[in-house]
Design brief:
It is a single chain. By secondary structure, this protein is α+β, with helices and mostly antiparallel strands. The protein has three helices and five strands. It has one domain (7-91). Strand 3 and strand 4 (60-68) form a beta hairpin. The protein is globular. The model has no long low-confidence stretch (mean pLDDT 93).
């Protein structure tokens, strides 16, 4: 069995997600569960990935994250719009 992913949390990224009404556990749900990678961008020399996924409470969220060493660092996130939610649900055969 694979080890659970490690997350890189500090006050800055926790507060940023809180401002977007996303808890630490919700971001971890999305990034450790079945998510769809929507693409990536390079910001200040760092690849930042965009994932859409569901929380345990069935909220569909978009989470931007980076991989730093061995850990996943959530950067920001927001509630998925209807189009993105439909894409995610169709990808996993939920609709």
């Amino acid at each position: 069995m694979a080890a659970p992913p490690q997350f890189d949390w500090d006050e800055q990224n926790q507060q940023h997600l809180t401002r977007h009404q996303i808890s630490r556990s919700e971001a971890e749900d999305v990034l450790s569960g079945n998510h769809v990678l929507m693409g990536f961008d390079v910001v200040d020399g760092e690849e930042r990935w965009i994932a859409v996924g569901a929380t345990r409470a069935a909220r569909i969220l978009i989470i931007v994250f980076a991989i730093r060493e061995e850990a996943i660092r959530p950067i920001t996130g927001w509630q998925a719009d209807k189009e993105t939610e439909t894409l995610y649900l169709n990808e996993w055969g939920i609709t």
